[in-house]
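User: Second chain of the day. Same drill as before.
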Amino acid sequence: MFLTTVKEPIRAGNILVMPFWKSREPKIIINEVEAVPENVVKYDARVDIKDPGSRKRCFLVEHVLGPLRLVGITNALVVGVDRKWNFLRPEHRFAYSIGLGPEVVVGEEDGRQRPALSDLVDKLGELIVKIECEVYKSVSEEVYYENVDPFGYKGRIILKPLKPGEGIVLNVTLSENSIDNVLINQEGLKDKSLLKQILRAQTPFLIGINTKEALLHAIGDVTADIVGLGGLTDVEIIAELNFFYHALTVGAIKKSRFVKKVGVCRIE
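Assistant: Same format as last time:
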């Protein structure tokens, strides 16, 4: 698939998404911290990344990575734009305690994926541009990862390699609800009605895991943790989630080994 970025900066809630051209693989950089598995420092109820060479840390990055890939953006520079503290939020208390500003918390206060992007879904073609760089990245072999969360619920992830052009195929189960064969390709999630629902869906950590909305939110998080952090273009994901499922999804991508091929690419 070809890489993509935004034509010009886009404000999406408490983040600003800016063009990023100079990469030969999918890459999202948030507040100057690259979103890759090795930079993840917390993954249970949320996902945080930290630059190993500095004290810079970003909180709730799953609510950036998932929405961007779902709308078809593979490459971007992202900065947080919050300027006010809300000490009812644990992420704000943590950031304040280590001398960081509120802009490092890039997840929305209401726990939704990225509702501001849902309003732009119908005109994404005007906002996103193809980068002249064709890339394939998948897992090099089937990955099986399972764990048991603090409540005793077992979960498992299976990642299967796919050929170039087959895209991302998601099969996700959360509690009593499931969805199969969700396809994400170069243009993002093909089902635009479903895409809008996911972008507006609230986190299971606020509404519980037994609703359809919780499942929809989890689709975004699985996309973030596996596709976003892994920079994958083609893979099949079978996710049977437990409650603290970020430990499961990030655990799987940290365990994975990858195969990457760069085709036509005009990036120096």
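The chain has eight helices and 17 strands.

User: Great, on to the next one.
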